[in-house]
Amino acid sequence: MYSSSFFDGNLYDFSDKEPQRAPIGVFDSGVGGLTVLRQLYRQLPNESIIYLGDTARLPYGIRSQAEILQFAREILTWMQQQRVKMVVMACNTSSALALEIVRKEFDIPILGVILPGAKAAVQQGKRIGVIATAATAKSNAYKNAILEIDPRAQVWQVSCPEFVPIVEENRIHEPYTTEVARSYLEPLLQQEIDTLVYGCTHYPLLAPVLRSLLPPQVKLVDPAVHTVVACAQELDLLGLNNTHPPLPTRFVVSGCPQQFAQSGVHWLGHTPMVEVVLFPDIAVTPLQQDFVG
């Protein structure tokens, strides 16, 4: 189902006297951030959420820092216009390349996924593998965060450029995916890692494939779980916990709403109602025309 008007202005019209009722904004390049959304549902069931997938410009992992920073600024500006009370940057690439910069530019709490993931990793093991997008791996964000927390840890990173397209195209269970995953994991297995960090929010969706290729003693770390723990702590600190029933989650994409809905149903258990938002550098396609909100 797709819509540009399902969520009318009154539904998300929050009084300044009740900021706790405002939604949490969550964004990613595509469906990967739904792993964070599912954790929000589990850990913070009273919170209303606006989810934005910047699907017109994915994958982020091959983008430059300047591009990622531009995208983050545009999305955060849009989120502020929706009057969200907090933003979860459910994207490792954005967290690695833009988080510290935009935190200084926007007067709203912004949480990333890397520090919570790094903290969880060092609690699990000392020989830590990180699978990530090319941009995240190149940034050394996880390696630096892990070593800052525990200098005794050893960290190996592998860039996995094919994983995001595989997940977005729902090709997880194809034999080709297993072969690709095996090639990415081989150098980490040679290092006898005891912990593997999902360095991209898309990757937990590949868990069945990865688990089948890893020794049983290797622990998997999903930063999404720990990011939402940090989110809960921040809401407590700010006194912004919502005690009212949550509003329906609002799904917005910058690309094709049909494709997002078809991919999202596998992770949400239902077909989401999807709106379209256009950013300045994105041209309207015929498939978007009727859904622009």
Automatic annotation (TrEMBL):
Top-rank lineage group of the source organism: Bacteria
Residues that, per the record, bind substrate: 28-29, 60-61, 92-93, 201-202
Coiled-coil features, chain-numbered ranges: none
UniProt-listed GO biological process terms: cell wall organization; peptidoglycan biosynthetic process; regulation of cell shape
GO molecular function annotation: glutamate racemase activity
Function: Provides the (R)-glutamate required for cell wall biosynthesis.
Record-given protein name: Glutamate racemase
Originating organism: Amazonocrinis nigriterrae CENA67
Name of the coding gene: murI
